[in-house]
Structures are given as structure tokens and as C-alpha cells.
Automatic annotation (TrEMBL):
<feature type="transmembrane region" description="Helical">
    <location>
        <begin position="515"/>
        <end position="539"/>
    </location>
</feature>
<keyword id="KW-0472">Membrane</keyword>
<keyword id="KW-1133">Transmembrane helix</keyword>
<feature type="transmembrane region" description="Helical">
    <location>
        <begin position="458"/>
        <end position="480"/>
    </location>
</feature>
<feature type="transmembrane region" description="Helical">
    <location>
        <begin position="631"/>
        <end position="649"/>
    </location>
</feature>
<keyword id="KW-0812">Transmembrane</keyword>
<dbReference type="InterPro" id="IPR007246">
    <property type="entry name" value="Gaa1"/>
</dbReference>
<dbReference type="Pfam" id="PF04114">
    <property type="entry name" value="Gaa1"/>
</dbReference>
<feature type="transmembrane region" description="Helical">
    <location>
        <begin position="574"/>
        <end position="594"/>
    </location>
</feature>
<protein>
    <recommendedName>
        <fullName>Glycosylphosphatidylinositol anchor attachment 1 protein</fullName>
    </recommendedName>
</protein>
<feature type="transmembrane region" description="Helical">
    <location>
        <begin position="21"/>
        <end position="47"/>
    </location>
</feature>
Amino acid sequence: MAESETPKTRPRPLVRLGIFLISHSLLVSVVCCTAGVLALLLLPVLAKNTYISENALMPGSANAMLSSEDISEAHRFMNDLTGLNLKTGETGIESSRLIARYMSDLGADVNYHKFHPQPNQFRPLHFFSNSDSRIIQENICCSSHGVNTVGIIRAPRGDGKEAIVLVTPYNSHKIDLAEALSLAIAYSVFSLLTRVTWLAKDIIWLAADSKYGEYASVSAWLRDYQTPVFGDFEKPYSEICCESNARHGLKESEITERKISDVFRRAGTMAAALVIKVSDGNKQADGTLSIYAEASNGQMPNLDLINIVNNLAVHRQGLQVKVEKLLSLLDSKWLRILGEVFESVGNIARSLNPQWKFGIPAADYMEGAATLASSLYYQALGVPTGSHGAFRDYQVDAITLEISPKVALNNKIRQTEFLQRGGRLIEGVIRSVNNLLEKFHQSFFLYLLTSPSKFVSVGVYMIAFALLVAPLPIVAASLYSDANKWDSSLKKHDPTSSPKSADDEHRNILRSWKWLYAAKQVFIIHSWGVLVSLLPYLICQMPNWMSKVLTWLILGSPIIDADASQSQKREWAILKSVTISAAFIGLCLMSVINFATAEIGALLLVPMCLLAHPLRLDVRAHSLKAFTRAGCNLVLGFIGFPPAAFFVLKGSFEGFESVNISDFWNWIESLWAWNSATYLYIE
């Protein structure tokens, strides 16, 4: 009697919630996906104003010290640089010699850095370890090298443990006026910093020879800077040419010669780096400053570095700061309608409660959405937007500043004003970074920009991603539960099955491990994908005939029998459950490596995972629901195919008349050459 009255134990609330979500997986999927897309569209509305987190930076707290004398010296330096182009028979080393002489006259420690162009070789493990900086092709001749010129100012108030880097890329064979102006801006600041007494960090000026590309020269110098060598290993890399002496044929005074060395000089740990560029005079803008911050695989510098540049440029130098945006979105009609809807909702919210600050003007929404889309795209691409990306590989915060003058660059009357504005901007940034007692750490490293003064933090944009991927584990659990129910119902209605069998427990154990067969299929398919992604690297490492055999084995030979188990609904449900689980794990892992890639991948993969169903079963069903699902699967499969997705996105943003078949392969090759993790993700 007591046993019959014993109440059954109820499951815990968390278990009951899980059962409810699994039993209503369809409704949960629709709600979560809709909310995820809506949250993504709301990000420009939810963006916050930027603010400086580190109080020690204090941008603009001191008056600029750059004088007219520094500007006149910089103007003379610029004229000497441009004058080299008028001389016939001059080689690229003449510009390096001139820059080194001006650096040395200021009292800086000067050295030359020779580097060789690195071949584009795909290294699959480059994401987890640094490549060997000492690998150089044996057949590289003496003439195929570049020469960087490096000047170092030792801080009078420092201990040599920290440094700030200025980078000015230029083509050593022919310096154009824009490059000469950027070098002159750096020289004016460098000249000032040799005299100031408040400097607490060493200053490194890297005049990067960009004849093989801006990134190559900066990356080569950073590899040697971060990888010290000892003994005789450094000697082959410090030699310049067999037909010239150790000074490249320099015939300077003895005092200057003692200050210029071929020995690689170093300063302290890099606190920050600024890449200074001047835009071409043909692209005139009303005194704008463009900031490029994206580094490899979605890495971004500390937001405080962008904030101090924006603060000084706007409030001190009167420059209009810009960041990259997708201009095609500014003409989008659907985006304008969406912005007007959000603006109307914001007006209604403020009419109900004036303290509710929701909604922005439609024009601001379109600007923010275009900037946000650009930030997502370049972070997802995984390719740096400038030579500053080389610094981020060594955890150094760096950005590229491209200044656009108000007038044409050949207007000599306004060149002095331009040099002064640019020089004082760089001086203010250096002075703020010089105040830091430690590395940038207070502000955000994970963020998306909607304008130079507005950002979306990681705590906000991860909500959209979490909502998008939330249905995946719920649907996977629901499919696995349904498969077990089908198995139990089949056994219940089987007339040949005995009510009680000695092997019943053994069969139940085998039935519970049937997901391993589906997991094996998923593992084989993913292994095939990994092999395809490594195919370019493997082909480069083997003879021609071997590469053809390998290509046939991968692309021509069957790996699994796709029809072996997919004719039964139960086994298909288990296979889909395992596949969805693998997709969920992959998306979550990619969100840690590169959020932008994971977000775009979730927009494509989640609908495919939820709607995937055997096409053969849908055709045989002869119902409207089945045909609709089959059509959706075909459309999603087409859009999810990387070439098709690339052409659709490019056509929608730039117009389909500009789409070319070779564009996709050029894009994939660029990902491959830059060792972007997005390449492996796409494969």
C-alpha cells in the first residue's frame, strides 16, 4: 500500500525545459533564426559612441610642439627625394642613402635592413606557428632584394624596454609625390622627437622599401626584429651586395658613416605602430583621414588606438575621419526602407517614453550598415587591409593612416600646411601612446565599427550569432530522439518479435550506438574536405605525375556509398543529427578564431542544416510541403556553394555586369597566399 502511494519523482526544471525545447524544435528554430537575423540588422541601431578607456592616454592635453623650422626641414627633405627622380642612372639605393643621411644628421641610430621577397607558399600550420624567417631561395640573385632604412631615437626618459614605430612605405626606384609627402611628415615628427625631453619610449622610423609590396618589406623587418640571431648567422643577411661594400657604396663623412650600420639594431618591445600614407593627388577629398585597422584572420587593434587618432584628427586638426564602407549599400532601396522602419519605431518608442533612446535616422542607419558590412567583410576575408597587419601577427597594435589633402599635391603653397597638420596629428598620437605605462589593454579588441566614432562590442554582436546557432543542438537532439522513437515503434509493431528475449538488452545497446555509423560518414566527408583544402600545398610538394594521380584519387574516386543508409528515415535522422552537431561545433570554434567568418557562415549553413532532407524522399512524397522543401534545399545548396555565393554577393553589391569567372579564383588564390583561415573554412 505504501509502495503504491509513493509519488513519482518529477524531472528538474532544467530537464523539463530541455524536453519542451526538443519537442517544439520547429517553433524554436523559426523563432531563433528570425531573432538572429533581426538582431544582426539591429546592430547599427545598437552601436555605442566610442570612448577612451585608458585615462593615461589624455589625447590633446598638451599643445603641439612641431614648429615651422621642422616643417621647412621636412620640405627640403621632400624636395631632395623628388629630385632623385630627375637624375638619370640613379638606382634605388640612392633614396635609401638619402633617407639614412637625414636620419643620421638628426643623431639617430641608423641601419640598413636587406630582405628578399618571400615566395607565396601555402603553409597549413601557419595559423598555429610562425614560419621560419631564415628560409631564402638558393637561386635569389643579388639584385632581387629590397633595402629598408631604419632610424632609432633613444628616449632620454626611458630604459630602452619599449618603443613606438613609425612606418612610411615608398618605392625606392621611383618615389612619387604622395610617398615623398608621407616621408616628409615622418621626418618632421622624427626631427622634433630628437629634441624633446618628455619622450619615455624609443622611436623607430622604418622607411620600408615597397618595391615588392608594402606588406612584404614590413613583415620581413618584423621577422628579423622578433627573431634575434647570434654569431655568424646574422652576417649573410646584413650584407647588401657582392659588388658593393658594406655601406652600399656610400661616401659620407666619417661622423655619418659611424652612425650608419649594417648590423641589425633593435629597441624595446613595441607598444604601437603607425603606418603613414598620403593618398594620390588625383583622389582629392576635403581633408579626410582614412583609418585601416583590419589585420589577418579578423584581428583588430585595441579600440583606444583608433579613438585617440579620431579624437585628435577631428578636434585638433579639423580632419574628417573615414573608415571603409560598402558604397553599393548606400544606394540599396531595401536598406533605406529598413532604416525608415527602424526610425519610425524609434519615434514611437520616444513618444511613449522620452527616456527610451531607440532608433536612429534612416540616413545614419544606412551609413552604419554599410560600414558594418565592410567591417564584417574585411574581417571575414582574413586578409590585412594594409602593412599594419604584419604588426598584429606579433600582438602589436597598429593601424594605417591615409591622409587626403584638400588640394592637389603639386600645389606647393598648401604643402607646408598639409605637412604641419599631418605632423601634428602624428605628434599627438605618439605623445598619447608615450604616456602609457603598459600595453593597450583597457578597451576592446573584439568589435565592429559602424563609423569612426561608433562601435558594436563583442557582448552585443555575439547575441545575433548565438541566436542563429541555438537551434542546431536542439534540432540534433530532436532528430536523435525521433529516430529512437521510430525504432521502438517498429519493434512494437513487428509480429515476429518476441515479447521477451534474452538478447533484448544486447540489442538495445547496439541500437544506442548506431550513431557511430553516421559519425563515421561525417568524419570521412570532413577528411575529404581537409584533403581538398591541402591540395594546393600537396601539389606544390610533389612531382607533376604524382600531382595528377593525387587529383584523380581525390576528385575521381568514390569514397562512400551515399545511398547505403539514406533510404530509411531513421538512419537519415541519425545522420542529419550528427551532421548538425558537427556544424554547430565548427561554427562555435570558428567564432573564437574569426567571428565575422562564423557569422557569415551561420547565415548560410544554419538554414541548410535545418531544411536538409533527402531529395529522393521529397520527390516521392508528392506533396506541396515536400516540393517546397526540395525547392528551398536546391536554392540554399546553390547559394551555399562557395563560387555561387561569391558571384551572388559580388553581383548584388557591384552589379552583375562586373562579375567575372576569374574573380572567384583570384579571391581564393589571395586567401591561399595570405594563409587566411577563411580558406580552410570555405574548403
